[in-house]
Amino acid sequence: MELEIRNNPAAHRFETSINGHTAFIDYKLRPGVMTVLHTEVPIQLEGRGIAGALTKFALAYISSEKLKLVPLCPYMQSYLQKHPENNYLVKE
Question: What is the value of pTM for the model shown?
Fold first, then answer.
């Protein structure tokens, strides 16, 4: 399934909508740092890899914008443990 994921800076989130349901990652942006707060996938969309796709998109965005990441979201923390190649983005 090909997802159309977008950054919605006005709402401070990355999001995708499918069949009227929106999955998203909330973030807070400060100069040079993005804090990822929460990942949410509606129950109707669970089990399709959407949280992982949103997370990959967010990490690519953080890298391309040369930001540092503060991963407060439990899903993001778990993803980083499984994909340590992205840990260079984490703010020390």
Answer: 0.94
